[in-house]
Amino acid sequence: MKLAALALAGSLALAACASDETGSGGSGSGASGGSEDGPKIGLAYDTGGRGDKSFNDSAYAGVEAAIEADGGSVQELSPNSDASNRADLLTQLADQGFNPIIAVGFAYGDVIGEVAQQYPDVSFAIVDSTGVDVADNVTGLLFAANEGSFLGGVAAATKSETGHIGFVGGVETPLIQSFEAGYVAGARAVNPDIIIDRQYISPAGDFSGFNDPARGQVVAQGMFDAGADIVYAAAGGSGIGVFQAAAASNGRAIGVDSDQYETVGDPALQPVIMTSVLKRVDNAVEAYIGQFVDGTVEGGSDEVYDLASEGVGLSYSGGFIDDIQSTIDDYTQQIVDGEITVPETPTD
Question: Signal peptide span per the entry (predicted)?
Answer without folding.
Answer: 1-18
